[in-house]
């Protein structure tokens, strides 16, 4: 073989021995290359992949399919909101957030609505605000304690709270110990400027004791008999109502009655039994209202738009004036006119009217939305639990707060008689704020007890999350990079 031919053969064999870069084999028409193989082939040969319409790499069509979590449209927004609301910790955050917002906004409005009243009685402008702020701080501590307590401890406190409350309510009626405020003998003097209304704690006592009683009877399958459903729940409830009515506090008695009927409804009381007890309560209420000129005058002030010439319905009419003068966005924080002596009790029973005057329709609707969110979250906690005590207690607290808010706001709007009950977490009054904040902490504890919420809260702990992340990382050999 000539020398030049031998040289050509050696050159070809040397080229064949050199490893060539991996390139993509030509794919049949209409079949796309896998992304990794196409990238390696492009890097090796320097050739660019021909331009193709976006989305043709996998689906074969020239249009991109929108992802499920993106895009517009009311239906997609509704689905995202529904998924967010169905998360395990939604009720926990809604109860905590709405209650704190109501309390903070209530502190602001108490200061704005009470400053003129405080100056009128020769006190500093922050007199009522300081007392309410102190009660809010103490109530916040009670809420935190209640939120951290286990359910068993809440059940264990049911009987002690009931006995202490009944003792204090009896003590109120003892001459020389109990105090009368605005015609109601329902107060105990604690010293200095502080007073206590034990009937406010009677709501919490009835809820805890009634929930524990019904839960134990449900475990023994006794709630199918009407006598076990009524006794001793209804007699104890009527005993508390009698002690309250001895002091003349019809508003608190109405709220306690609503709690009692809420517990019976949650226990599955038959319609005939429920209607019978309700009819009996209506007859008693009618007799109590009919025999009291003060209560009859309050009933006659429903729907009035101006006071009569003799000065009757003055508070109801000026509450409507305050709401009407607020407009869409109000006259401004602190700029109320009705609180300058025209509207009685602007910082307690009729604080919602001052809110409408200073913050307008936007402010009042915000308050209503917060109460609606708190009530719906309470219903969700009561509906998703498997523990009967949690169901009855959460339902009782939700009934208490929503019924009291409806009665207070309805009286301000002229739709209901003026019952003299404060707006929960919002109006001035430490005796009403302390048990209400404890009840909110109770619902927070119940929301935390949900198994899915427990797992979600456990995952939020730094130690648990770090351990979980470490489990997901695979161990590599010492020589691997």
Please tell me about this protein's structure.
The chain is 64% helix and 3% strand. It is built from 19 helices and 3 strands. A 3-stranded antiparallel beta sheet has the order 1-2-3, covered by helices on one side. Helix 8 (198-219) runs antiparallel to helix 16, helix 10 runs antiparallel to helix 11 and helix 14 crosses helix 15. The longest helix is centred in the C-terminal third of the chain and has 34 residues, at 351-384. The chain is globular and about 130 Å long.
List keywords for this structure.
globular, 3 strands, mainly alpha, 481 residues, single chain, three-stranded antiparallel sheet
